[in-house]
Amino acid sequence: MQSKRPIPPYRIKMVEPIRIIDRKEREKKLIEAGYNPFKLHSEDVFIDLLTDSGTGAMSHFQWAALMKGDEAYAGSSSFFRLEKVVQAITGYLYVMPAHQGRGAEQVVIPALVKHPGMVFFSNIHFDTTRAHVELSGARAIDVVIPECFELDHYHPFKGNFDLVELEKQINAVKAENVAGIIMTITNNSAGGEPVSLENMKGVRKLAQAYHIPVIIDGARYAENAYFIKQREEAYRDCSIREIAKWQFDQGDIFLMSAKKDGLVNMGGLIAIKNDRHLFELCQTRIVPMEGFPTYGGLAGRDMEAMAVGLEEALDLDYLTYRIAECEYLGNRLLEAKIPIQTPVGGHAVFVDCGAMCPQIPYDQFPAQAVCNALYLEGGIRAVEIGSLLLGRDPDTSQNRQADREFMRLTIPRRTYTLEHLDYVADCLISVYQKRHELKGLAFEYESPILRHFTARFRVVT
Ligand code: F0G
Questions:
Q1: Once rounded to an integer, what is the mean pLDDT over residues 382-394?
Q2: CA distance to 29, 32, 39, per residue, from 25 (Å)
């Protein structure tokens, strides 16, 4: 029998109690946190939708694999097990673990910057990726399709590159100044929106014509492969593993935060298709930054858990439920007419708080105001992905204005039930009904970089 509600293809073996503190307590905690949910203690949060990064549940196979960890400093057998799994999934020859995604970025990105004034293109750079590009003295330019930010316009692959614009930009800066093209799959900052295989092939073709390396930022590559199977006619009957492999065929370098589709709480990966020179350069760089190349900042047991998690994330039943639960939450919000990015992406629902609270100007951070209201309403923690995250223009010191003022309701993997998501929807609907009463925020403290993590605010009255 077909159920109307998505059914998880796993059952619960171990539970972690959560509790909700009462409204008065929540008000106190939010004030103590300076109206910044990043500064809340997790025990004061009932349902934590801050991120899907490292917050998922491991399977019993992964927990069992931890016991096999070989903790040798060099040549750990756990590394060779992981290497084999990554080589089989990607087809890439060289593999190095890193402690997480940004660890992989700090090793590889500067290694691609050959001279000052170079540029990276991406559909949209994730914020740590952008930071590493800029720290390496290069510029980060996004070339996503314009439909990406037309929220209620249906497009099956809103994460796609604008190929015409990409070629135009390559010519404008000259190919020899392009350090790489970074394909972010799925495209986190735009709503976890997928990139089609056709589009990835288009990027590949351009990159080859201009001799530019292609980097796959594949934190959520398995979710992207699932969307390709669902939405791209030519691949409907192909397996997730086949599609994943074809995705990797379009790149030269794979960087991964394994805290997402690696289904682990900590870990990252670097894989290089066949460029031995680059591999040797990264091997040299990784030692002082992450650790010896066969552990890269991870314990042997972490690599064991990742080797198993990478396989589990390619399971069709797992992915079907994973994507369906995000869609379920999205549909509950759409029914209540709450403006969200559609179609819903792979790891989160992105709520358009600019549209929801037009009374709050962008530099008073409407999405942060809604995050705070949601915490007060139901002890739920979400995250701002808008002008607060974007920071200030380094030249003018003015607040940069995001395309959209998003609040991201990020769903950890295999962690919450549909009852939890129903509760989230109910609470947000209740906030939505009071949206006209919400007020903006002004800084009490603002750090010069990555301000969203540590800022403190007051409510503008
Ligand atoms: N690339 C993408 C697309 C990401 O989403 C992230 C992390 C990273 C790289 C960096 O990986 O955190 O392991 O160092 N995204 C998390 C998020 C933090 O909440 O979206 P990391």
A1: 92
A2: 6, 10, 15
